[in-house]
């Protein structure tokens, strides 16, 4: 009889775990250098020479060509973190990487996977509870903390932070707390434009022709989720007398519909598709500003902001009263010719802000936009769920809380709890390492200092390498970003460890 740990199945089992862990570590290695204020950017180049410069973990992971299933799972986590909460993808990836590496170490040393998983669950649960307890609320949008949150997650771009805060204040906290509203969706970056925030939305198309007015005040807006063309008639039918008569009738009907648009007092008309020449002529004569072939998400924004209800062209048959209820209103609507876009300001529907982030060159437009979106998401997360000390400080405090839990955990599950402690310490370690200091030394220093001061906000000032209070430095993170990061890291680590067990079970059976 073979000893359990030395059987070929056992070795193979470890080999599989080690392969998965190695694949995950390769992903971690791709993003760890970007973490924190001294993190560096990564330049991604595709085979056509197209360049993306970024320090956003999720962007790097999205663009990497990865085939290993375990590595892909990790990338999925970063994407989910980005979609759910908009920031903290590097933190989540690093934590997951540490959980997996540590977990696999214990398993290789003979701790059963089930015990490691059990302990990880306990540790993560504890970390999440103590994070909630340590969260501080943001009482009002006037709080200077908002600017700090936006500044920290916006990689210390003060101009972007200020823009995003202005947008948040214009929009108001009620709207920011709505689950379906994403402040990050209001961000647009463009090359060569100045920074700007305004209450309104942009359609990135110009007016249909130059005879139409570029500027309309007190606009009455019709949104057609359709083309504005007469109903078609079959070629063959057109050759018959009755068919031709029908054609003329349809043309007359169509003219009637277009006239109805004018009579209703519509001054701006947006279409999802194209417009018939006849309609263009009539609407131009009537001084209506028409924008055709507008992207559907932009049509939706205009509808939301101006209170318009998008209709199909068949709706033009409805009575005037009925139709006029579908019109939207905006205080001002004007075309910026150089940018080929039309802006709608002061709509009577939902308040919406657009944050236009200028960038000098096309290459950095994308990165400026990502930074502004990170800042906006974080700010919104902080309004919703409060904030905690940043710079890896709160994670060290959580690690301490989880250590206490470890002492209460019986048997080998304690090794699983250890993995969580290591993962929580990883944030500070990486931030410090990227700033050029010794992570082992600094993590120990900070842990000891937090304990002696009874504080959860001590970490390292990345400029000096000295211990410092993150709240005093204004380094804060939204609680929800951290909460999601820990949860997501835990889920993927458990999934990867568990899947390996299942693979081995089938192998053994076969
Ligand atoms: N000036 C600073 N001093 C110390 N820590 C900082 C400072 N600025 C930011 N940090 C910390 O850096 C961490 C965030 O780093 P980073 O933005 O690179 O990664 P992420 O948010 O996890 O991922 P990503 O932004 O790529 O989605 C947070 O813990 C934050 O508190
Ligand atoms: Mg970030």
Structure overview:
The chain has 19 helices and 14 strands. Helix 3 runs antiparallel to helix 4 (89-108), helix 4 (89-108) runs antiparallel to helix 5 (113-134) and helix 5 packs across helix 16. It has an eight-stranded mixed sheet, with helices on both faces. The longest helix is centred in the last third of the chain and has 31 residues, at 479-509. With 510 residues, it is α+β, with helices and mostly antiparallel strands. It binds adenosine-5'-triphosphate and magnesium ion (MG). Adenosine-5'-triphosphate (ATP) is lined by residues 34-37, 39, 56-58, 87-91, 152, 374, 390-392, 427, 431, 462, 475, 477.
Summary?
The protein has 510 residues and is an alpha+beta fold.
What's the average pLDDT?
88
Uncertain residue ranges = 1-6
Radius of gyration: 29 Å
The hetero compounds bound to this protein are: adenosine-5'-triphosphate, magnesium ion
Q: Which homologous superfamily in CATH is the superfamily of the largest domain?
A: GroEL-like equatorial domain
Class based on secondary structure composition and strand pairing: alpha+beta
CATH architecture field of the largest domain: Orthogonal Bundle
- Number of folding domains? 2
Roughly what fraction of the amino acids lie in strands?
Answer: 5-15%
Globally, the shape reads elongated
Helical stretch tally = 19
Strands ordered across the widest β-sheet:
3-10-4-9-8-5-6-7
Helix percentage: 55-70%
Distance between the termini: 19 Å
CATH top level of the largest domain is: Mainly Alpha
The tally of beta strands, per DSSP, is: 14
Largest sheet: 8 strands, mixed
| Topology-level CATH name of the largest domain | GROEL, domain 1
């Amino acid at each position: 009889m073979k000893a359990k740990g030395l059987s070929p199945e056992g070795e193979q089992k470890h080999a599989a775990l080690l392969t998965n862990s190695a694949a995950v570590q390769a992903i971690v290695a791709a993003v760890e250098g970007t973490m924190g204020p001294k993190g560096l950017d990564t330049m991604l180049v595709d085979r056509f020479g197209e360049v993306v410069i970024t320090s956003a973990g999720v962007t790097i992971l999205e663009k990497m060509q990865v085939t290993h299933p375990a590595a892909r799972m990790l990338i999925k986590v970063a994407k989910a973190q980005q979609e759910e909460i908009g920031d903290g993808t590097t933190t989540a990836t690093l934590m997951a990487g540490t959980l997996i590496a540590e977990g696999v170490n214990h398993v290789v040393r003979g701790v059963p996977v089930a015990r490691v998983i059990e302990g990880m669950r306990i540790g993560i649960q504890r970390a999440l509870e103590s994070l909630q307890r340590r969260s501080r609320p943001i009482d009002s949008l006037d709080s200077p903390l908002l600017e700090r949150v936006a500044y920290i997650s916006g990689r210390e771009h003060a101009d972007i932070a200020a823009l995003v805060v202005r947008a948040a204040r214009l929009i108001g906290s009620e709207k920011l707390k709505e689950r379906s509203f994403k402040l990050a969706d209001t961000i647009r970056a463009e090359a060569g434009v100045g920074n700007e925030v305004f209450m309104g939305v942009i359609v990135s198309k110009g007016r249909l022709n130059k005879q139409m007015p570029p500027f309309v005040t007190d606009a009455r807006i019709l949104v057609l989720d359709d083309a504005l063309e007469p109903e078609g008639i079959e070629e063959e039918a057109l050759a018959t007398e009755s068919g031709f008569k029908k054609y003329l009738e349809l043309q007359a009907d169509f003219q009637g519909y277009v006239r109805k648009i004018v009579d209703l007092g519509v001054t701006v008309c947006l279409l999802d598709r194209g417009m018939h020449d006849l309609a263009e002529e009539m609407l131009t004569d009537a001084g209506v500003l028409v924008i055709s072939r507008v992207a559907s998400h932009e049509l939706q924004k205009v509808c939301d902001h101006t209170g318009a209800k998008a209709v199909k062209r068949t709706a033009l048959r409805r009575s005037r009263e009925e139709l006029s209820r579908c019109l939207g209103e905006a205080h001002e609507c004007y075309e910026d010719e150089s940018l080929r876009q039309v802006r709608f300001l002061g709509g009577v529907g939902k308040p919406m802000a657009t944050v236009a982030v200028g960038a000098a060159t096309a290459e950095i437009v994308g990165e400026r936009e990502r930074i502004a979106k990170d800042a906006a998401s974080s700010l919104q997360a902080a309004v919703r769920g409060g904030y905690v000390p940043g710079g890896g400080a709160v994670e060290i405090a959580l690690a301490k809380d989880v250590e206490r839990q470890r002492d209460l955990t019986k048997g080998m599950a304690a090794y699983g709890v250890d993995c969580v402690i290591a993962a929580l310490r990883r944030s500070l370690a990486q931030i410090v390492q990227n700033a050029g200091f010794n992570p082992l030394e600094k993590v120990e220093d900070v842990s000891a200092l937090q304990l002696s001061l009874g504080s959860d906000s001590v970490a390292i000032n990345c400029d000096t390498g000295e211990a410092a209070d993150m709240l005093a430095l204004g380094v804060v993170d939204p609680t929800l970003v951290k909460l999601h990061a820990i949860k997501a890291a835990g889920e993927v680590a458990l999934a990867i460890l568990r899947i390996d067990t299942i693979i081995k079970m089938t192998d053994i059976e076969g």
